[in-house]
Amino acid sequence: MLQVNNISFGYSKTSVLEDISFQLKSGENLAIIGGSGSGKSTLLKLIYGEYDLPHGEIFWKDTQILGPKHNLVIGYDFMKYVTQEFDLMPFITVEENIGKHLSRFYPEEKQKRTNELIKVVELKAFAKTKVKNLSGGQKQRVALAKALAKQPEILLLDEPFSHIDNFKKQSLRRSFFKYLKENNIACVVATHDKNDVLGFADTMLVLHQKKIITKNTPQQLYKNPKLPLVASFFGEFNVINGTIYYAHQLQIVKNSDLKGTVKACYFNGNSWLVEVEYNSVKVFIRHEKHIKKDEVVFIDLI
Ligand code: ADP
Ligand code: MG
């Protein structure tokens, strides 16, 4: 189990995180979400032991995670951290990068394991390609496979699919997170992409203004976001009379007490997002058809 107990941290006098506490069990997937600059990457670095903690403590099982003051080499064998910079060797191939830390004394085992991981990140066609010749997204996949090579107990992932194109993203997410579950590898995923979270995270933790403002399952937070910041993570939303409604919870009807004017209409794939001005506020509503600007419409709850 990962235990983060009352940690606070700042790079200088200004603090970035204050009194953060949470736990994560073996094999569980925890998503850390929050706006840019909210401290997601900093929190991962602290869990990894990259900095000394002025307050609080972090444990993985019985081992206390200590910073550079106490460790000559940062990091622990049971924990791997995939940064946004990838950290790969450009002049050797994909399979050499992944197998780099696997034992040379068992070449068959090494090859088998490398092949297995190449499959998890869907890079089979590039096994013999030098990393310098890969795209950003392909490099990111090599970094993910490399982190798995030595079977860590916990993985720290910073925006792990950010460079991967949309054609590949969803299938890679499924393959990767399934592998973690099957191998009981815990993970902490810092992200601002709801697709990294929905369907995969057991728990979601929201950072805002240095603190954890809420922590729950994605289902619970989606159903009851309570705060606009949480709702905004999931999609377009509106606050009407103090209550949060997603765009799909409203509809355009023939008649109602809520009358507004269409200001814009955005194509969204299987529906349109209609921007309506109602009582001088913007309201976003999902609708199956395009509606012209300046048309008068009536709004209702679904
Ligand atoms: P996030 O990953 O959520 O975007 P970060 O953890 O990277 O946020 O950053 C949190 C805050 O800490 C930001 O205000 C950022 O400018 C600051 N920060 C991050 N890294 C450093 C650093 N190495 N030195 C000084 N300030 C930093
Ligand atoms: Mg970051």
How are the elements arranged and paired?
Layout: E1 2-9, E2 17-24, E3 29-33, H1 40-48, E4 55-60, E5 63-64, E6 79-82, H2 94-99, H3 107-120, H4 136-148, E7 154-158, H5 166-182, E8 186-191, E9 203-208, E10 211-216, H6 218-223, H7 228-234, E11 237-240, E12 243-246, E13 250-253, E14 258-267, E15 272-278, E16 281-287, E17 296-301
Parallel strand pairs: 3-8, 3-9, 6-7, 7-8
Antiparallel strand pairs: 1-2, 1-4, 4-5, 9-10, 11-12, 13-17, 14-15, 14-17, 15-16
Helix pairs in contact: 3-4
Structure description:
By secondary structure, the protein is an alpha+beta fold. The chain is 24% helix and 32% strand. The strands form 4 sheets. It has a 6-stranded mixed beta sheet with strand order 6-7-8-3-9-10, with helices on both faces. Strands 13-17-14-15-16 form a 5-stranded antiparallel beta sheet, with no helix packed on it. Strand 4 (55-60) and strand 5 form a beta hairpin. The longest helix is centred in the middle third of the chain and has 17 residues, at 166-182. The chain starts with a strand and ends with a strand. Bound molecules: adenosine-5'-diphosphate and magnesium ion. Residues 40-41, 158, 190 line the site of magnesium ion.
